[in-house]
Specification:
heterodimer; A: mainly alpha; Helix Hairpins; 4 helices; 0% strand; elongated; B: mainly alpha; two-stranded antiparallel sheet; 39 helices
Chain lengths: 117, 1047
Amino acid sequence: MTLITILGLVLIMIGLWGMLTQKNIIKIIIGFSIMDTGVHLIMVSIGYLKDRTAPIIDSAVDQANAVNTVVDPIPSALVLTAIVIGLAVTALMLSYAIKLYEKKGTLDINEFKELKW
Amino acid sequence: MVNPIYIFILALGAGFLLTLFDKAGRKVSLTIFYAVLAAMVAISAQWLIALLGGSETAMIFTAGFKPPFSINLQMGLEEAIFTLAVNMLGLLSGLYLIKKFNATKVNAMVLFLMMIMGINGLIMTRDMFNLFVFMEITSIATFAMIGIDRDIKTLSAGFKYMIASGIASVLFLIGTIYLYRFSGMLHIDSMAVALDMASSQATLLAVFILLMAIVIELKPFPANGWALDVYEAVDSGVVAVIAAGSSAGMLFALYKITPLLNETLLLTVAGIGITTFVASNLMGLMQKNAKRLLGYSSIGQIGLVAGVFAMLVYLGYPINGKMVMLIAGGLFINHFVAKAGLFWLAGILNKENTEDWGALRKKPIYLFAFGAFILALVGLPPFPSFFAKWQMVMIFAKDNQFLVIAFILLGTLLEAVYLFRWLGKILESEVKEKIKVSFAQGLPVIVATLAVLGLGIYSATIVPGAGSLNIFYLPLLLIAALFVLDFLPVWVKNTLVILLMGFYTWQLLPGLEGYRFLFGVIFLVGGVILLIPGYAFKGKRVGFYPFAVMMYTGLAGLLIAENTLQFFTAWELMTLGSYFLIIRGKKAKPHALSYMLFSLGGAYAMLSGLGLFFSVNGNNLDLALLSSITESTSIIYILLVIGFLTKLASMGLHIWLPGAHGEAETDVSPMVSAILLKAGMFGLVVVMSAIQNPMIGNVSINYVLSWLGAITVFGGNLMAIYQEDAKRLLAYSSVGNLGYVLFGLTLMTHLGWLTSITYALNHFLFKALLFLAIGGVVWRVKTKNMYEMGGLIKRMPISFISVLIGIIALSGVPPLSGFAGKWLTYNVLIEKGWVLQGVVLIIGGLIAFLYCFRLIHTIFLGQLKDNHRKVKEAPLPILIPQVIFMFAIMFFSAYPNMVLRPVGDFLIKYFPQGAINWQNGVAFTAFGHWDGLGVLMITGVVFMAVFGWLLLTNRKTQKVGQFNIVYAAERPSRPELTHVGYNFFAHYRKALGVLSKPYAEKFWDGLSELFHSTADFIRKLYTGNGQTYLVHIIVFILVVYAFAMGG
């Protein structure tokens, strides 16, 4: 496990903690975002190989030996997608927060318990 | 053929361009929207047809590389079936939502397309990360779609959904990236191969995390509060897509990652799924909100499908093999169609409370649809889940998974409780308002109804042993025709059914042998005779004939069933038909419910027994082999007998009977009492003749059952005497009568069986006669309370004679047929030496006199009441069968040998010892002899002599008016004052009250209360707080981790 992976895990835990303890919906969303960032960090750390270069085939990289000289590009590609999706989800959550606030005038998650049992 | 990738191209293209087209007008954008949805259906349909025709699974590659270096899609048979189902759902739900799409911005259409496309992607992609992308596309589109409704409930439900789904996607990403790390692949199939070699702890953990992501999306108990809120709050058209479509996609995702799972994880999924099924159906018991109730049912069903699927894979059935398709696939498609249909109906009715759904009664088509969906969810024939459940029990029994069977059947029974309660409420409620159903909202429901029926019939053709089900084809066709012809007047339908059933009986009966022939006479000839009273009804009698035919189909099916599948199908058809007959009674709803639940419970015991039989019988369904099994005979015997005893209403299992038989319609009561009860007996005869004298340790099961029979006689008769309601009195009397039948069978001797079978025939005759006669009286006087009647002998003389003959036959005094039974019983008791049971039986028989007396005294003798002075004799159609039954009783009494002899002859096959010796119609046993005709003639002569003497001496009698009496120095003014009918046997109640307390009712009520309060307790988990739901999810994952990975 690299330092970055551990950092990612820590971020996930912090985010989860925030989601579980904060009552304000905005703060819960922030918690979610932090957690998401942690996941992204872990993903990037998986692709990283020590002492290698960026996976761009140009004059700086020997094409024949590229496999052994560049880092794994796939996690980087994946993380881009994941970031985009995370952005969309966060944006949607925030717009929900706005609507919820408009309806009730509060952002306390304990106030939204119309449906139960 | 069109490349399946066009599903995505069309949806995405339209999604981007719809906004543009919308500028040209809403009509243009709507047309394109529906055209795209229809095209998606067409593409998956043509693939399904091609694949069924033998085409190979299509692989669609992207980016010019082959997997594992690129994302690829797959279109095989499973994918084609799933995408077709989802796209049909999309088209129909889209149609259903047309009003909404017209009223809101164009975005709604775009989002809807993205939802459907996302699910298609979930199904088709073979790439792990792509799976994540499609999961998110579906989720985001769904969240946004939910957000269109600006209702506070909907918004807060949507937010809770987002939090849960956010956790799931985080887990999915972590799992995926680590699996990529360990395998170097994202292509699911290659990943499974690559990981096989390195199943280290870390890999396992990654798989576990990935699995949890999918499991959370499948709404496991208790981490599913958010889903319930979504089901309750979101618009019906959208929620139909979420409940059926999104779940389909996630189930398919589970299906895809199954190769990664080891045995522990498979078992984990099975455990989670089945627990969810039982728990959510338990909690559903307390639910009144219609859509939330459907939510509980949905969650349960999804759990069932996932759990059963994982179990099958665990047991080694190939993942794309026939069994998985038939069982898990059948359960899934059944839920898919039925639940979508129910959510659509919920939107049409727009009633929150399940008790307000009565408006459906004004719309027979939609009522039929509702009924079909409910029956499909409970798993009754002819729906796909019935065959899936049947095969599942067979397979699990074969692999000794009885605990799994027990839990699944328990969950199904719990689901049946609330679904049938709902159905009963609808059928019972007063309709105040009318609903309007637009074409766009009605069509999807009708399509779903036809689909669930069609899929059921298809399942019936692929289940192992399907060929033998052809015996039901013609009757089912007739039932379908009767549904269609239900607009005809009652006499037309009645004539039609009598003719067809008569013809069928004519064809079938001569081919039956032994006891089957005798039961054939009771079931079918009796059935035809008891249809005659139908002419007394006016109007259309909507819904009577299809179900009457269904019941008789089931009964006939029992007679000719050669394998267990036929037998069980027939049994369930009979139960279903009779349930809908009983529920027609005005106050019969709660009793019909308990009838159904006891029947289902019994049927499940029977099903388990048949499953066990299947497994010890070398996976053979042949019913005739029941006599040759050597293993587990006692358990099979007990399970099957429990099933039959619920129909026979033995003490303890009888509580449904009095209400169900007492509150049924005039001609239904004799049908269910005189005929239907014998189905339970028929089952007992089948089992007991095959498995003789099974033991548990040193105890003979039949000895225990003989006590049950004796107690049933005593208890049934005792409770009968306290009844004020004439029909309930007869119903309790049936409980007691059938106790004799059970007792006779348990003796396991020639005479015992002879007694039992002749008693059954006798009970058929006199109980049909009595129920018809009393039913005719009730028909005229409009009350069932005996104390409100009296003196009806003058107004209804034929009914009086019927009742008189009936009770003489019932009470077993000479000269009528009942005496045959009694005489035989005493012979048997002496032969067997079971003195104690004998005493109980004799006391029970004496008690029977008490209630028989009441029928004559309180109804026909005594004083005519003022409001009955102009009462007419019962209608002719009700009297005709009575005359037939009276003649039959007379004939049977005069020539008992005509029946006893042939019955005895075939009984020799099973019990060669101790047969009756016949000499010119006189029966000889070891203990004495009996001459039926002689007794009848002597009694007749004595009767005539006394009668003649009375006529001679009483010539000078003076007739007096009703009130021409002295009554404690006061002149009575009303007939009620001279004729005591209420609480007639109060003194006996004082003396024997302890014995007649409703212990059984108390027990079952207590059990029901226990289940309901547990349900109420557990569902308090769902506090409605999004954060609590998050805690549930985290705790759920940790607990599952401890279970699955800890050990």
